[in-house]
Amino acid sequence: MTEETWSQPIAKVEPNKVAVRGYRIDELMGRVPFAHVVHLVLRGDLPTEAQGRVMDAILVSSVDHGATPPSALAARTVASGGAPLTTGIAAGIMTINEHHGGAIEGCMRVLLHAVARKREKGQDALSAARELMAEYRAQKKRVPGYGHRVHSDDPRTNKLFAICEEEGVAGEYIEMGQALREAMKETLGRDLPMNVDGAIAAVLCELDFPPDMGNGLFAISRAVGLTAHVFDEITAQRPMRRISPTAQEYSGPAERSLEAGG
Amino acid sequence: MTEETWSQPIAKVEPNKVAVRGYRIDELMGRVPFAHVVHLVLRGDLPTEAQGRVMDAILVSSVDHGATPPSALAARTVASGGAPLTTGIAAGIMTINEHHGGAIEGCMRVLLHAVARKREKGQDALSAARELMAEYRAQKKRVPGYGHRVHSDDPRTNKLFAICEEEGVAGEYIEMGQALREAMKETLGRDLPMNVDGAIAAVLCELDFPPDMGNGLFAISRAVGLTAHVFDEITAQRPMRRISPTAQEYSGPAERSLEAGG
Amino acid sequence: MTEETWSQPIAKVEPNKVAVRGYRIDELMGRVPFAHVVHLVLRGDLPTEAQGRVMDAILVSSVDHGATPPSALAARTVASGGAPLTTGIAAGIMTINEHHGGAIEGCMRVLLHAVARKREKGQDALSAARELMAEYRAQKKRVPGYGHRVHSDDPRTNKLFAICEEEGVAGEYIEMGQALREAMKETLGRDLPMNVDGAIAAVLCELDFPPDMGNGLFAISRAVGLTAHVFDEITAQRPMRRISPTAQEYSGPAERSLEAGG
Amino acid sequence: MTEETWSQPIAKVEPNKVAVRGYRIDELMGRVPFAHVVHLVLRGDLPTEAQGRVMDAILVSSVDHGATPPSALAARTVASGGAPLTTGIAAGIMTINEHHGGAIEGCMRVLLHAVARKREKGQDALSAARELMAEYRAQKKRVPGYGHRVHSDDPRTNKLFAICEEEGVAGEYIEMGQALREAMKETLGRDLPMNVDGAIAAVLCELDFPPDMGNGLFAISRAVGLTAHVFDEITAQRPMRRISPTAQEYSGPAERSLEAGG
C-alpha cells in the first residue's frame, strides 16, 4: 500500500538544524523568551513585545493552584500507584477539560459569539451582553468563566486585565467580558467576577487565538505545577496512600515578597 | 475512618490569594518571566538572573522537533480517534520516558556519579570519565545523552553550553559531559557529541536539580509543541487517517531570521 | 472543612469480603463466566443465559484488529518511548473515541431515537428509517456504525446478529439497524453494511445498556489486544523505532480452525 | 526514506476476515468463551478446559474493589474534570503499577527465581523459601504479593487456589507461594497471607505467562470496574466535586447469593 504524504506547519528538522515556524531554535535560545516562543509555536508568529508580556503573564497565572484541583489529585493518585513522572503529569493534563480549566474554551466561544453579534447589530457591549444572557437564561445554560469555588474576586484576573491595559492589548473582548458580568448581575442578582479561566479566555480572544487551542495554554502552564506535585508524591509521600482532597495543608515557605530583596 | 492530614510545599490557596513557594502569583505576573517561575515552582526558589536565562534557554531548546518523535505521533494518533485536545497532549507527555527525552534523567545520574567519584578520588575529569567508561563497557551499558538519530552535531547543545559559559553557570558537570565524550571516543572509536537531552542533563546538574525531575523539564517544554500538533491534527487533518512517521513534510514558513526585522 | 460522604453502587469492600452488585466475588469465581460478570458489574444484574452468551460474543468480537487501528499504534508508540505496560495500554484505550470504536455510542443514540420515533408514530421500521435518513441528509450528518475502511461485509457483524437470533435477543433495534441500511442504500445509492461497532450498538440497545457506556464495552474487549501489542512492543521490538501504520505484516500462526482438533 | 516493514504475531486482517493467532474471530464468537480468548490472544494458543476455567476465575477475581483503590479514584477524578469515558478508564489503567496491582509482576519474578533455585539446588520448597527470605531480609527488600491493607485473609486468594486444585493446575509455584508465607512467618514473626495479586502471580506462573505481562491481566479485569466507576461519575455525580477516598459508602443492592435463585 502506498502511503499518503502528509504535512505539518510546526517544525522542520534537518541534520543539525531544527526550526520552528521558520526560526532556528538555536537562534531563538537565549534571545527570545520562552513565553514568546510559546506564542510563535502556537500562533505561527512571534508576538509583539506587548503581546509577549501578556502571554508571559497568562502562563504565570495558571502555574499552580495547590493540591485541591482535580488535575493535581489525579496526577498524584496515578503516581502513588508507581507510575513514572511523565505518566503522572499526563494524568493531570487529561483532567483539564470542560469543567476544569476548560472554561477557557467555552468562554472564548461565548465572547467571540457576543462580539460578532455586537458588531453585526451595531450594538454597544452591554446591550449585546443583555440579549445573550436572556437567551442563556431561557435555555438554562451557564456562561463559563465566571465565579470560583474559592475566590470571590480572583487576584489573577485583576492583574491580567491590568497588564493588558498597560500594554494596550485590552479591547472588545475584555470589554465584553465585563459587560457579561454586569448583565449577569442584573439577571441573576449575583455578582460573579470573571475567574482566571474567563480572564485568560478574554485575553486569548484579544490575541486572536482560536478557541480550540484555549485549554492548551492552561495545560502548558499547569504542567509546571503538576511536575512539582508528581515529584513530591514520588519522593516525599508514601505509595498507595489515601490522598484526601480536603485534609491537606501547605508546608512551604511563609509568604514573601519580591520587594523584600529578591 | 479519620483522615490523615498531609502537606505539600508547592502552593497555598486562600480566598482571593494564591501563592507559589511563598510568592503571590499576582505579584509574579508581569514582573517575573515564566521561565523563572518554572524554576521557582520546581526548585523552591527564584533563580538568579544568570540561572533564569539558562532555564529559559532549556525550555526553548526542546519546544518541538517536528512530527517524527514518538511523543508527537502518539499525541496525533490519540487525537485522530476523536479525543479532546488535552487527552492528546497527555498521550504525548506519557511517551516521554527512558528512550525519548528520558535520557535527561539517566544522563544526570551518570554525571552526578562521575563528578562525585572525581571529587572523592581527587581525579581530573578525564581520568574519572575513562574509568567510568571502562566500567560501562565491561557491563555493556550505554551512557545516555550522547548521539542522535538525526543530528551529528546538535546545534541546541552548542548554544546551550555557550549560554552557560556567558552566564558563568558552566562548571564541573558540563566539563564532565565533555570528558565523557572524549573517553567514549577513545573507547568506542566514535565521536558521539552530546545530544540536547545530554546537554540539558548537564545544565540541570549545574542548577542543582534532582535527576528524578529531569524528564519533567522536557515534558513542560514539549507540551508546547504537542499542543500545536494536536491542534493541527484536530483542525486540519482527517479523522482516523494513517499517520506515517516518515512520509511527511514541513509546510510552514520558509527559514527566516530574527535579524531580518523580527 | 467537613467532607461530604458520597456513595457508589458498584462494590462493597469489608475485611475479608468483596462483593460486586451484591454478589461475593469468591462466590462468582469458577461459577459465573467472566462475560456474565461484566454484565453484572456494568448493568447491575446477572444476565440470563441468552444475554450472557450474547455479551460473551460482543467481548470476543472486538478483542483485536491487528496493528493498524489508531489504538494499537498509539499504545505501541507510547511503549516505544519506554513507558510501562499499563501506561501503553492506557494510551490505546484513550484513543477509542468518536472516530474509533466510538461509533458504538453514536450509533446507539441514533437507534434509540429511531425506535422511539417509530413507536411514537406507529410507523414500521423502514418508514422511520427513511424519515431519519432524509433528516440526516438535509443536515449533512452521517449515521455512525455503517461501512468500514477494510471490510465490505463484516463477518463479526453477521455472526453477532446470528447469535442474537439463536438466543432470541434480536428485536426492534437490530431490525432498525437493518432498516437504516436499506434507507441509506435508497438515499445514497450505496450499500454500506453495519460494521462491528454498529452491530454492537444494536445489540447493546437490545440488552438495555445506556449509550454513554457503549464505548466502555469496546474498551474492555480491546484492552486484551492492546496488552498483547504493548507486550510485543516492549519485548520484541526496538525502542524508539519508527512504527509504520502500513509497512507491517502478520507473523503469527497460519489460519487454523476449531474443527481441526481444538 | 524507505520504511522498514515490521511484523506482529497477534492478528491478521484481510478484507472480510479478522483472525487472532490464526483463528477467525467469527468462528470463535459464540463458541469459545471470552476468558479462553484472552488466553489465546495473550499466550498465543487456546487454553485447555482446565486452564480456561482458571483464566476465567482470575479475570473475575479482580473485576472491582470499590472506590478506594487509586485506580478508581484517578479514573473518577479525571472524569470529574469533563474527560470522555475512555480517557477516564485510561487514567485508571495507568494507575495500575508497581504499588497497585503491580505486585503481580514483582511476585511472579520472585516465584520464578525461587522455583528455579529450588530445582537447581535440588532443595525442597521451604528450604528454598527460607534462603530467599534471608537474602531479602539482609537487603531490606519486601516480597510483593503478601498482606493487604483491608483483608487479613483474602477470600479471592483461597478460592483461586481451590479452583487450581480442582482443575489440576496447582504445581510448584503455588507451593512456593505457600512456602514463602511460612518462611516469612518464621523470619518476620507475622503471618501475611498472599493477597489476590500474589495469588494471581502464582497461578500465572503455573500457566507459563511471562512476568512482563502480569499487570496486563489485572488491567483487563479491572477495566470492567473502572468503566462502571467512570460511568457513575459522569452520569450520577457532580462535576469538579471533591472525591474523598474515605468518606464514601456503598449504595448498591444488599448481599445476595447465587443460590437464592439467580
Describe the fold and architecture.
The structure is a homotetramer of 262-residue chains. Chain A has 262 residues and is mainly α. The first copy, chain A, contains eleven helices and five strands, in the order E-E-E-E-H-H-H-H-H-H-H-H-H-H-H-E. The first copy, chain A, has helices at residues 25-28, 34-43, 49-61, 70-80, 85-95, 103-121, 125-138, 155-167, 172-188, 196-206, 214-236, and strands at residues 6-8, 11-14, 17-20, 23-24, 248-250. Chain A has a three-stranded antiparallel β-sheet with strand order 2-3-4. In chain A, strand 3 (17-20) and strand 4 form a beta hairpin. In chain A, helix 8 (155-167) packs parallel to helix 10. The longest helix of chain A is centred in the last third of the chain and has 23 residues, at 214-236. Chains in contact: A-B, A-C, A-D, B-C, B-D, C-D. At the A-B interface, strand 1, strand 2, strand 3, strand 4 and helix 1 of A face strand 1, strand 2, strand 3, strand 4 and helix 1 of B. Strand 1 (6-8) of chain C pairs parallel with strand 5 of chain D, so a sheet runs across the interface.
